[in-house]
Specification:
Blueprint (H helix, E strand, L loop, with lengths): L21 H6 L7 E9 L4 E7 L2 H9 L6 H9 L4 E10 L11 H12 L20 H7 L2 H9 L2 H11 L2 H6 L6 H17 L4 H9 L3 H8 L9 H15 L11
Antiparallel strand pairs: 1-2, 1-3
Helix pairs in contact: 4-7, 9-12, 10-12
Length: 258
Amino acid sequence: MSIIQLSLFEEMELNYDKHDSVGDINAKNSYIEATVSAYRILDKLTNRSYIGVSIDPATRLSTHKKGKTSNKELNKLMNERPDDVQFEIIDEFFDPTYKSNDSESRASKIEAFLIQVYDSIQNGMNSALIFHHDYTDVSFWKDVLTPKLFDIYLVANHELLNIRSQKNKYLKVNSRKNNKPDEKEYKKWASEYLVELESKGIKTFVLAQKLSKIDRRNLYRFIRQEDYGAISARKLSLFLTKLEKHLNIPHKAFPMQL
């Protein structure tokens, strides 16, 4: 069980290569089929957990450590009691169809399973559940889970997992139904997405200027979360749409679409 210490922008001070070609950029997109990590952030003082999945857990942890995500309890923990935080990679697995917040992806199913195992909604820091399936269906979970996670499943109380999952399964839908998206939350999400792309070799600063005429300095201030007003939400949304189309990568949807 390891604790990772990172600084989000230690390697990212506008380090773009002006000679990158479109072919070079597209060649770097194999990360879409990369290994996905299921991770746990533990508040050692309260024993409350946060469960997440990511193709880039190091960058995700760095974002969490900045304490500026949409999760208020996790932000407070990171800002006020960082010494009480423990980060653990629970397991890794392959998911060729991985997309954030896709309830049909293997990653979302594994995340949902671990949320129930750690009871991380009712007695933890997760706020939403986007997938539910009967935990007495052994064959289903054997196909979905890794061997390590399936061993955990076999000794778990399946009825208890079902009770927890049934209680939580509509939480995300109900809590956001008919609500207008929060522009600041969208911008936080978008900045994390751009950091993830940049960390994988995608020259977002170059492409922002090329595809949407976004000034590099404004994008830099935005990604560093120094000035969310540097780019409008509408312009940002249009740029991400163009960027995904240009790179030929799957669309990554914001949990509440603008």
